[in-house]
Amino acid sequence: xxxxxxxxxxxxxxxxxxxxxxxxxxxxxxxxxxxxxxxxxxxxxxxxxxxxxxxxxxxxxxxxxxxxxxxxxxxxxxxxxxxxxxxxxxxxxxxxxxxxxxxxxxxxxxxxxxxxxxxxxxxxxxxxxxxxxxxxxxxxxxxxxxxxxxxxxxxxxxxxxxxxxxxxxxxxxxxxxxxxxxxxxxxxxxxxxxxxxxxxxxxxxxxxxxxxxxxxxxxxxxxxxxxxxxxxxxxxxxxxxxxxxxxxxxxxxxxxxxxxxxxxxxxxxxxxxxxxxxxxxxxxxxxxxxxxxxxxxxxxxxxxxxxxxxxxxxxxxxxxxxxxxxxxxxxxxxxxxxxxxxxxxxxxxxxxxxxxxxxxxxxxxxxxxxxxxxxxxxxxxxxxxxxxxxxxxxxxxxxxxxxxxxxxxxxxxxxxxxxxxxxxxxxxxx
Length: 430
What we know:
Layout: E1 8-13, H1 21-29, E2 34-37, E3 46-50, E4 53-57, E5 70-73, E6 78-79, H2 81-93, E7 100-103, E8 107-108, H3 111-124, H4 136-145, H5 157-178, H6 187-201, E9 205-206, H7 208-217, E10 222-229, H8 252-256, E11 263-271, E12 274-276, H9 288-298, E13 310-312, H10 316-326, E14 330-334, E15 344-353, E16 356-358, H11 365-370, E17 372-379, H12 398-411, E18 415-419, E19 427-429
């Protein structure tokens, strides 16, 4: 007789990424048996701060900081083996022995994917998404072309060589014949290096779908961690200025092999203002001294790239889509402390596009480029009381609670988690 099935929670980004998913994942990881990544690669960057110690993670789920939950990299993630080995060493140096499993079905980022990524970025011109140049788009493309190499293939040299010759020839043709670049690395160099990576990683590889199925049936708790935000989703985001994977909660099923119907709680992480790394129109973007001040106060520099993030005011058109597409059960509102001290706070509630009033994200790139934000001006809340996280929601300034009420009303979703600082304990649950 098995236990009752577990409760499963998903945490996803409701904007452009960088919303604070790492902190929220870390907050809930302590009560989870498994923490699972289901898409993306080392283009993601999650920062977790615990007791003044900062952890910057790219592939390994944020829950690794606790030490106790089993961290799983699902089949929907694309894996750079060298980056993964480096990250394993990084967390070990931080005093954590990672309890890690990696799907044997996850696709492998090869050196020719990274080379092709750089060549394609130049080719895309004004429609370039602002790639991290880590090979993410090419490896997902190869997966769909059925030219891909999976983690399990690194353990089977004959199969690996067969697939490598096919994938290498395809990418080399694109790089050299179509894009006019040179692929410097040889097949033999790749083969030897990646067989060695496979040997070093083989103890982590398994069928993670079966592991999670059995865990759920036996009553273990599972936490899914999204890597980027909804506006970067390749289907629902501002295309083509997106990532190359599906960031929405619905991809959990295909990215891990866990049935979507088993997910009980879907938390959308919303930053109290807006930030974006990379190119695309950004209707509520701000510039100049105001932007510089917000960027510095919020530490808005990319975890993966180090690039300064573009910043702007909260865009509820975007959040409405996140609520709808992800099926959010609640919102975690982060970085409210960064907005302390403002007399007034603009909040974008709709767009004006050539005289039309738009409340939902348009598919048309022309419309999005021409979108002008319609703002509601809300009063600020000054400085929050010291140690407000110990005092509870009722002790928040009234204007801050009004700000939260306004968001809830506009997007039809409750704010249940309020983050008022970067560290784990600086969090209020309503």
